[in-house]
TrEMBL record:
Its EC number is 2.3.1.286. PANTHER family: NAD-DEPENDENT PROTEIN DEACYLASE, NAD-DEPENDENT PROTEIN DEACYLASE SIRTUIN-5, MITOCHONDRIAL-RELATED. Its main location: cytoplasm. 2 residues (Tyr-53 and Arg-56) present in a large hydrophobic pocket are probably involved in substrate specificity. They are important for desuccinylation activity, but dispensable for deacetylation activity. GO terms for cellular component: cytoplasm. It is an enzyme of class 2 (transferase). Keywords: Cytoplasm, Hydrolase, Metal-binding, NAD, Transferase, Zinc. The gene is cobB. Belongs to the sirtuin family. Class III subfamily. This is NAD-dependent protein deacylase. It is found in: Cytoplasm.
Length: 230
């Protein structure tokens, strides 16, 4: 049975209306990375950081999964082999689109994390700086987001899946952020066929064997239809 491992990035959610970080007018143009996406920024000004992610959470709640999200869920449901989706995105559009086997390597907007005891729970729509942990009662709640300088989640498991992949697809990724940018090389070492879906080649686009250019809602939907006909 064919095992398909899929990495998704900001491009797949952008079609639903989620603001991206790296576009010219994106979130990094509006906010300094050091202020809202590092442990040091949180230590300096937790209220600003918490409010930044409150705004992202509210934005994500106001949009819907698009055809590409739904196509990946269809692939998972109907493909005879294993389908694993790894996302760099922190929104819940894959879940709402129907995907079941999903890894949020950079964390999850709808999650809260205790900086003291690592307990996780569902984040309220509006977190507040100094919210108490439900487990240890320490006022150390933070967004369950992997910030710059922190290790992405589930890396050992993700590399195991990459090594077992027959097909590796990257959808809407910039290729600028490691370790995710190294996933194509890892999959190729395991013998996977590699395919990139993007509006333009990514920073690691030359490492993919196949490219499909255009909106993910179109290219991914067509690809899934082809796979399910085999």
């Amino acid at each position: 049975m064919t095992k398909i491992v899929i990495l998704t990035g900001a491009g797949i959610s952008a079609e639903s209306g989620i603001e991206t970080f790296r576009a010219e007018d994106g979130l990094w143009a509006q906010h300094r990375v050091e202020d809202v996406a590092t442990p040091e920024g949180f230590a300096r000004d937790p209220e600003t950081v918490v409010n930044f992610y409150n705004d992202r959470r509210a934005q994500a709640a106001g949009v819907e999964p698009n055809a590409a999200h739904r196509a990946l869920a269809q692939l998972e449901a109907q493909h005879g082999g294993e389908v694993v989706v790894i996302t760099q995105n922190v929104d819940d559009l894959h879940e709402r689109g129907g995907t079941q086997k999903l890894y949020h390597m950079h964390g999850y907007l709808n999650g809260a994390l205790c900086a003291t005891c690592d307990y996780r729970w569902a984040a309220p729509m509006k977190m507040a700086a100094g919210d108490a942990c439900p487990e240890c009662a320490t006022p150390a709640a933070r967004p369950d987001i992997v910030w710059f300088g922190e290790m992405p989640y589930d890396m050992d498991t993700l590399f195991q899946h990459l090594g077992e992949a027959d097909i590796f697809a990257a959808i809407g990724t910039s290729g600028n952020v490691y370790p995710a940018a190294g996933f194509v090389a890892e999959a190729r070492r395991g013998g996977a066929h590699t395919i990139e879906f993007n509006l333009e080649p990514s920073a690691v686009g030359n490492q993919f064997e196949e490219h499909r250019t255009g909106p993910a809602s179109q290219t991914v939907t067509e690809w899934v239809a082809e796979l399910l006909k085999r």
